[in-house]
Every structure is written in structure tokens, then in C-alpha cells.
Amino acid sequence: METAGKRILIIDDDLDFRASVTAVLEAQGYAVAGAASAREGLSTIAAEPPDLIILDIIMEHDSAGYEVNQAIKFRDEFAPSQDIPILMVSSIPLDPATRFDRAAEVGMITPDCYMTKPLNMNEFVNQVRIMLESRSKRASAHGQVSST
Fold first, then answer.
1. How many domains does the chain have?
2. How many angstroms separate the CA atoms of 145 and 148, rounded?
3. Is residue 24 classed exposed, middle or buried when 0-12, 13-18 and 19+ CB atoms within 10 A define those classes?
4. What CATH number does residue 18 fall under?
5. Which domain holds residue 103?
6. Does 85 sit behind a cis peptide bond, omega within 30 degrees of 0 on the bond before it?
7. Is residue 94 part of a domain?
8. Residue 60: C-alpha distances to residues 51, 76, 94, 102 (Å)
9. How far is 39 from 68, CA to CA, in rounded Å?
10. CA-to-CA distance for 80 and 6, rounded, in angstroms?
């Protein structure tokens, strides 16, 4: 898959994490933007939807990332962005489906993929590639033009 033109948004309040992941992804040819809070991330998505979102959980409060995931996937104002894959990255060792396995609506906060910090960068870059390829294939199958 060609990486040129693929836009990734990192929503994480940790400046060092955003900087290091940005450097890794830019070296792979991706265009990367950052947001330091859930609110900033949602504003960025509304203004210029990326091809992939990398999302932390704990930012302004301990469930900010879950709220962003839920907003993108289920709120009407984000309907045009609902197909954007979300790669949640957190120091919390359990993914939402496992952590909240008894919650009836856990699917509303469950991302497309979950990885734990610290990241294995090779696995991370591979997962980003897989998620972007999958989105491109879905868009092609539905006659949509992917953004480049």
C-alpha cells in the first residue's frame, strides 16, 4: 500500500509520545497531525478527517479516549467519520472489551484495535499499515474514493 497522502491523527496529551510516534510514522511516509486533548482531537476530526486515529485513553480525565471513540462511532455529527479506524494506545494493560466485559454497552467504547504502551514500534507500524489497507479496501469495495 502506498503511504503517501495517508493522514494520521494522534490524540494524546503526552507530548513526548506524540513526538516519537510522529517521527516513526513520518519516516514511513505518513502525514501526521497531533491533538493534545479529546476536545482538540474531535475538533480536528470534524474539520479535516484523517485516514486513521491513534487515541490515548487517559487525557483530561480517565475516560476521555473512550468518549472520543464513542463520539466518532455513534454521534450523528461525526457520521461522515464513522468509518475512520481507531487504534487505541494506552498504558492500561486491558483492552476495553476485557476491562469492562460485564458492561452492556462496552461496544460503544471499543476501538478497532488496542495496543499497550510502551509500544513495540515494529508491531505498531505494521498494525497501522494493516488498518489503513483494510480501510482502503472497504472504501474501494463501496465505490468510495480514499483521500490522498
1. 1
2. 9
3. middle
4. 3.40.50.2300
5. 7-137
6. no
7. yes
8. 24, 23, 20, 25
9. 8
10. 17
What is the C-alpha to C-alpha distance for residues 132 and 96, in angstroms, rounded to an integer? 22
Amino acid, single-letter form, for residue 5: G
- The model's pLDDT over 68-107, given as tens digits with 9 standing for 90+, comes to 999 999 999 999 999 999 999 998 887 766 666 665 565 5
Q: Is 135 helix (H, G, I), strand (E, B) or coil?
A: helix
| 87, part of any domain | yes
Cell 482531537 locates to 41
E strand spans, the chain:
7-11, 31-35, 52-55, 86-90, 113-116
**pLDDT tens-digit profile of 5-54?**
899 999 999 999 999 999 999 999 999 999 999 999 999 999 999 999 99
Residue 147: inside a domain:
no
